[in-house]
Amino acid sequence: MNPHSQRKHDHVSICLQDDIEHQGTSGFDSYDFVHNALPEIQFDTIDTSVQLFGRTFAYPLFISGMTGGYDEAKQINGDLAELCSELNIPMVLGSQRSMLHDDTTASTFLITRERAADICLSANIGATEIADPNNLDDILRIIETVEANWLTVHVNPLQELFQPEGNTNFKGVLKGISDCKNKLSIPVIVKEVGSGISLSVAQRLHDIGIDGIDVAGKGGTSWSAVEMKRNSRENSEYFKEWGIETSVSLQSLKSFCKQQQITLFSSGGIRSSHDIAMSLAMGAQSVGMARPILLAYHANGIDGVKTFIEGMMKDVRRIMFLTGSEHCEALSHAEYTKR
Ligand SMILES: Cc1cc2nc3c(=O)[nH]c(=O)nc-3n(C[C@H](O)[C@H](O)[C@H](O)COP(=O)(O)O)c2cc1C
Questions:
Q1: Which overall architecture, per CATH, does domain 3-338 show?
Q2: Is 66 near ligand 1, meaning CB less than 6 Å away?
Q3: Distance from the CA of 193 to the center of ligand 1, in angstroms?
């Protein structure tokens, strides 16, 4: 196995076996919706669909980038893609970095299109790869190979800092994203991996014309904790807990993204229907989950993931009813208070 594939395999195993979540939550549990005793809507006609970049999805939910690049990942990606097609929700591929260096890993990503030709699929590449101008042509090639509908770029300085073989040269990342975006006709989304995006970073991303921001904040999987499991010489509670909580990140970006027409995504520690609905109330247009999907898949297979997602969306509809929100846009105006 090449080193990139080996690392991805390690990440998935650690995320399945170890306690690598942040101690605190993503912050949504500090807020309550204000109950609406006169919702004046009919439960059966509540519409959970959302429009993202001109395409309609059944739910304000997507599967965040996780895997690819080694044998077992092929099965996981294929199964998840088929489910995303059935549920009509988007799927983000795991980092395609291994594809840059080793063509033999391509099938572990391409399986998504083979098993679900119609899904909305996001390509995924990391900050440090995109910062290197020598990679640009190869990055464009791997985006095209999977016929990506969107590109997601993950910016992960904390993870790289504690990754034993991490790349801590973050010079030129913004320019690299901008150069890549200028060559593409698909939407480009920038995400963190569990440390959140601040307003000033969002403003710099807006300056280069980014279409979407996924805050991927603190409160769920801690990528410094994952890397510390791979690096026995490092163990810092301080850095395991570093970052901006997802709810804090969202609230600080809500009006800016709305004004600038940047699509805002919420992820990082989304663990319940309350977290999904509160994300929408705090300005997100769609909400991503990673580790809980992997855990459900590991425990009960793809049917387990389906049951998990449908169960959560059933409760999101109930929350919509009890806040008088007939559709997802209405939920963005729902009242909430700090507990
Ligand atoms: C097993 C696993 C692998 C991941 N690999 C990637 C990746 O390759 N690219 C990426 O952008 N994010 C990756 N992530 C990060 C997630 O997309 C997400 O931003 C982060 O885990 C926080 O969400 P969560 O709390 O729901 O897990 C991965 C997450 C998991 C659990």
A1: Alpha-Beta Barrel (3.20)
A2: yes
A3: 6
- Ligand 1 atom having least distance to the Cα of 16: 1
Tell me the pLDDT of the chain (339 aa) as tens digits: 888 889 999 999 999 999 999 999 999 999 999 999 999 999 999 999 999 999 999 999 999 999 999 999 999 999 999 999 999 999 999 999 999 989 899 999 999 999 999 999 999 999 999 999 999 999 999 999 999 999 999 999 999 999 999 999 999 999 999 999 999 999 999 999 999 999 999 999 999 999 999 999 999 999 999 999 999 889 999 999 999 999 999 999 999 999 999 999 999 999 999 999 999 999 999 999 999 999 999 999 999 999 999 999 999 999 999 999 999 999 999 999 999
Rounded CA gap, 172 and 50, in Å?
34
Domain ranges of the chain: 3-338
Distance 326 CA to ligand 1 centre (A): 31
Q: For residue 221, which phi and psi values (nearest 5 degrees)?
A: -65, 125
What DSSP string runs through 268-280? SS--SHHHHHHHH
User: Is residue 325 lining ligand 1, measured as CB closer than 6 Å?
Assistant: no
Bridge-based pairing of strands 61-63 and 263-267 is unpaired
